[in-house]
Write a structure and sequence with these properties.
single chain, about 60 residues, mainly alpha, about 75% helix, Secreted protein
Length: about 60
């Protein structure tokens, strides 16, 4: 009976570890898409900050 309990415990631990690993690996594509979107956003922000800004008039509009 002792061996059956140990076998059941080992099977349970392996099943749990497999489930956790599978769940974590399922999240990789989602995280990659979010990371790529964040990188694009940061690059766009940097480009906007580096681009020359037109002078604004007193009303806050671009002169014609």
């Amino acid at each position: 009976m002792e061996t059956v309990r140990w076998a059941a415990a080992i099977v349970g631990v392996l099943s749990g570890a497999t489930w956790i690993a599978g769940h974590a690996l399922d999240q990789v594509p989602v995280i990659c898409r979010k990371a790529a979107k964040a990188v694009r956003s940061v690059r766009a922000l940097k480009q906007e900050l580096r681009s020359p800004k037109p002078e604004l008039d007193a009303t806050g509009r671009e002169p014609e």
